[in-house]
Amino acid sequence: MSQENILKVENLVMHFGGIKALNDVTFDIKRGSVSALIGPNGAGKTTVFNCLTGFYKATGGNIMLSANGKETSVIKVLGEPFMMTDFISPVAFIQRLKYKMFGGSHLVNRAGLSRTFQNIRLFKEMSVVENLLVAQHMRVNRNLMGGILNTKAYQLAEEEALERAFYWLGVVDLVDFANRLAGELSYGQQRRLEIARAMCTNPEIVCLDEPAAGLNPSETEALTKMIRVLRDEHKTTVLLIEHDMGMVMDISDYIVVLDHGEVIADGGPDDIKSNPKVIAAYLGAEEGEEVTL
Amino acid sequence: MSQTAGMNYKQCFTDAVVAALMALVVFGPIMGVVLDGYKFDIDFQRVAVIVALVFVGRLIMSYYFQTEKGKAMIFKYASNHDGVTVNPPHFKSKMIWVIPLVMIIGFLIPFVASKYILTVLILGLIYVLLGLGLNIVVGLAGLLDLGFVGFYAIGAYALALGYENLGLGFWSMLPIAAIAAAFAGAILGFPVLRMHGDYLAIVTLGFGEIIRLVLTNWVSLTHGPNGISAPLPTFFGLEFKRRSASGETFHEFFNLPYDSGYKYMFVYLVLFIVVWAVLFIKHRLVKMPIGRAWEALREDEIACRSLGLNHVLVKLSAFMLGASTAGLAGVFFATYQGFVSPSSFTFFESALILAIVVLGGMGSTLGVVIAAFCLTVLPEMLREVAEFRVLIFGILMVVMMIWKPRGLVRVTRNGFAAREGAVK
Amino acid sequence: MDIVLQQLVNGLTLGSVYGLIAIGYTMVYGIIGMINFAHGDVYMVSAYLTAISIALLTFFGVQSFPFIIFGALVFTIVITGAYGWVIERVAYRPLRNSSRLSVLISAIGMSLILQNYVQLSQGPNQQGVPTLLSGAFRFYVGDGFVQITYMKVMILLIAFTGMAVLTYIIQKTKLGRMCRATQQDRKMASILGIDTDKVISSVFVIGSAMAALAGVLVTLDYGAFDFYIGFIMGIKAFTAAVLGGIGSLPGAMLGGIILGLSESLFAGLVSSDYKDVFSFSLLVLILIIRPSGLLGKPAVEKV
Fold first, then answer.
1. A182 in a domain, yes or no?
2. Residue A62 domain flag
3. B40 and B115 in a common domain
4. Mind listing the pLDDT tens digit for each residue in B340-366?
5. I need a labelling partner for B155 at 20 to 30 A (CA). Which of C138, C145, C204, C233 fits?
6. Shared-domain flag, residues B162 and B284
7. What is the number of domains present in chain C?
8. Is residue B417 a part of any domain in this protein?
9. What pLDDT, on a 0 to 100 scale, did the predictor assign at position B6?
10. Which InterPro entries does the record match to this protein (chain B) (predicted)?
11. Chain C 272-301, CB below 8 Å of chain B: which residues?
12. Alpha carbon of C35 to those of B192, C39, C103, C242: distances in Å?
């Protein structure tokens, strides 16, 4: 892949009824980096995330994801409303109809982006391994006849999926819990399982929504290490929302700061630390006041 | 918290009195005043009995929930974690011994049982089929389908209409009916399944009604409420009638005396094989990617979408498979009755099938099989309770949802042996 | 021309009845997000209660029409309200924290219980009430005429009064404020000291009372009923609620009237055999094209 940026967000706007959650958000994420999206509560971080991952349909702007060897417009695959011009050009009409009928956030994942959730969303009444197997749905042998007759090809594909699942269980240190129900795990374990599940879809970029929330310091430490493994060993780009500034500054190559639905600063951790706008946004402080992050 | 001495008898008593008064208000007019034309008869006795029952029941309940055991029970059901366990890896089910035994007994039954028992068993097996189909939709995929009877009707009418209009027999209509039902499921499901789950319930309810109304009103095709006759299956082209217009009949070919029981025997055996095939397919499906996807979708749709699963198509596959199973059941129902009419496909049928799934346990195959036989065969045997059947189903649904929402049979999940991880 | 006008008049009365029942669906959906399947059967129970109250009143020698209708209304509304309360208490409150599927199944169970209980208590045959108010206004249009029975006029008057009273309760009273607060955010409302269980119960009582109002009016007008009427009526009223936007009170009324009018026109002009098919198809179409209905707010999915 020649392109340097894996994700390009241009002039993203999101309105909920009359509330403007995002006004003109623009930033790029470099391939192979660990980037963080920070900002005070209510700044619109999760809204950006939900737009990126295709759970909200942005009101305006553009999101381009270049992964899996192609460019994907996140807004387009969610299915846009028909336009007058579509009725003249059948090709455009059919494409739009296709995305209207079969489009949705799952296509964003298939394009190479996966995510975790702020309020953990595991399949609680399924076992830990099964959670990881579901994530590999697009990669396993889904041939109905093959599965019912239990053919060689099917067994091989299942075995491979299990191996991959156990590999990721090893990475997040959950092998001993493989046959437990996901809902029985502790909070920290559930967070780790969710990351493993996101990685099982083989993404090029993984978006983590507050991965360290509710973790104790040693768990956060382990998480930091894990994120480095994702970046260095698996060449996965990581984008995270996080409130733990220590961790963000420690791990990130690039930070985007949001406030009131706008990007107020971006750059490396050192730039951000000393940026007066960021400090003011976080502490509501008068300009010139001495604050350290 | 835990002193039994602090039993509040006064509380128990007031609870019970309030409940009894409420029962009097609610049950009094409807049960006590029986309309008879524009006049009425008074029936105090029924009201007194029911009010007394409510009073005593509430008293006992109030008392029980103040004891240690009762409190523990409340706690258990408030925390809402019960039912599902994961089997250890390499777990061998005891069913391995039971299944061949049941198979052999099942195959021998028609040669010893009377015609009446055979018909009851056929009905039971038809409901097993229906229960299995709905269990895929409700139990695995978590989609509440209240118009299941619509697909059942499509299967049954497909056989009858195919025979009357196209001259197709049982064997050619069996797959066609399943496909037709699945197709109807796709047409209904595709637009509806992308919506919020609750709407699905009411839309399918409406769909079941539409099918019934169309069958009733489209007299030129379906003969309306009078119904339409359906053909019997043939044994390699041999018919089970006393005399056949076209060629030999079964009893003539084998030099047997004519007996109308043969056709039931044959229907039973074919149905028995089909039920086992469906059982096997379902057993495989839950272990396959598609089955996992259904269950994952039931657990959390948003998470599924974030993992690249097209939730509409995954739901649709469950919906269509369920529908096609109902279509199969419909064909057997039509051939077993020899006749179909719209009155066989009311909402009560849907409710009965749902009761089977609810009682048997969402997602549990064994539970559904047992429940199907209990709910269809028992009322046949005990004619006295037949009129209370629907009432019992209703109470069963409410009580099961409060007490054991997962059904009576424990749901177990497959364990996987740990292995070396690898990424290819 | 006269057929269209006649059907419009019929549709308006039918629609106001649908609207009354739809209120029960929409309020319950708004407050606890569930479809109360038993609501149609609550309506059915109210039809029986109407007949019972009329039979009792005539037995005790009440002859004048205003007294009978007033007595029937009070008796039916109070007892149907009690039904609403009991149903919520028995079948829904224990499931407050369960999955949506469990609550739906419980609701269907409740619906079956009500149907069969009434069937067992009152017998499976059709029942009826005597005609209490006859006569009609006639307007001549061209060659034909349009007929509006006094009963239909009364239905419209009482139905709209009922809706007005309900709107007043929801908009102006303390109970209405608590309902609206609970609808917005149940947890927050309970933190602020609102007894949300009580509010939910009262919503069931109000919804059932509205269904009872509809039950009295339809029974007086139509005369005959059986234990099965709740099923069809329930689906249609639900269609009305969805059409207007589920969760929205004015939407329920508007949806009811639109459904009533279009159904009557369809029955008059196309086919009366398929009028139920028409209504159900309308439900499916609305859900596909505009699931938020006419006045409802589009739901934002919480991720």
1. no
2. yes
3. no
4. 989 889 888 888 888 888 888 776 788
5. C233
6. yes
7. 1
8. no
9. 62
10. ABC_transp_permease, LivHM_N, LivM-like
11. 273-274, 276-277, 280-281, 283-284, 287-288, 291, 299, 301
12. 16, 9, 9, 11
* Residues B55, B107 within the same domain: no
What is the C-alpha to C-alpha distance for residues C17 and C15, in angstroms, rounded to an integer? 5
Of C114, C130, C284, nearest to B203 by CB-CB distance is C284
Alpha helices in B67-141 (DSSP H): 68-79, 95-112, 115-134
- Residues B37 and B119 reside in one and the same domain: no
Residues from chain A contacting residue B415 (CB–CB below 8 Å): 127, 179
Q: What is the pTM of this model?
A: 0.85
Q: State the Cα–Cα distance between residues A121 and A107, nearest whole angstrom.
A: 19
Instruction: Tell me if chain C has a CB within 8 Å of the CB of A16.
Output: yes
Q: Which amino acid is at A65?
A: L
**B31, B47, B199, B214: which to substitute to probe chain C, counting the most C Cβ within 10 Å?**
B199
Amino acid at residue number A130? E
Q: Which residue of C has its CA nearest to A51?
A: C303
Classify residue A124: in a domain, yes or no.
Answer: no
Q: Are residues B229 and B127 part of one domain?
A: yes
* Tens digits of residue pLDDT in A180-195: 888 888 888 899 899 9
Is C265 part of any domain? Answer: no
In a shared domain, residues B61 and B105: no
Of the listed ranges B179-183, B260-264, C3-7, the least confidently predicted one is B260-264
- Which chains are adjacent to chain C, needing at least 3 Cβ pairs under 8 Å? A, B
Q: CB distance from A235 to chain B under 8 Å?
A: no
B140 and chain A: CB distance < 8 Å anywhere? Answer: no
Is residue C42 in some structural domain?
Answer: yes
Angstrom distance (rounded) from CA A69 to CA A72: 10
**Residue A285 is which amino acid?**
A
Q: Do B361 and B368 contact (CB within 8 A), yes or no?
A: yes
Task: Flag if A55 and C303 touch (Cβ within 8 Å).
Answer: yes
- Which among A137, A150, A165 is the nearest to B308, CB-wise? A137
Coil, strand or helix: which one is A45?
helix
In a domain, C99, yes or no: yes
Which residue among B30, B192, B398 sits closest to C106, beta carbon to beta carbon? B398
Do B397 and C105 count as a contact with CB atoms less than 8 A apart? Answer: yes
Q: For residue A212, is it within any domain?
A: no
pLDDT-derived band at C83, boundaries 50, 70, 90: very high
Domain that holds residue B39: 4-79
Domain boundary among B79, B114, B142: B79
Per-residue model confidence as pLDDT tens digits over B191-216: 788 776 677 888 888 888 888 888 88
* The pLDDT of residue B149: 93
Domain count, chain A: 1
Within-domain flag for B87: no
Containing domain of residue A46, as a range? Answer: 1-112+242-293
Chain C hits for B209, CB-CB cut-off 8 Å, are 232, 235, 276, 280
Pick from A104, A175, A198: CB nearest B305: A104
Q: Please indicate, yes or no, if residue C163 is contained in any of the structural domains.
A: yes
The answer to whether C46 and C119 are in contact (CB under 8 A) is: no
The two tokens of residue C175 are: 């109970």
Q: Crossing angle for the helix pair B389-403 and C100-122, nearest 10 degrees? A: 150
Run of H or E residues at B371: helix B365-381
State which residues form the domain around C40: 24-231
Check pLDDT > 80 for residue C125: yes
**Chain A CB within 8 Å of residue B304 CB:** yes
The reply to whether B120 and B61 lie within a common domain is no
Distances (CA, A) of B15 to A94, B4, B399: 65, 19, 20
Statement to judge: residues B111 and B222 lie in one domain: yes
A126, A130, A134, A137 alpha-carbon torsion, rounded to 10° = -150
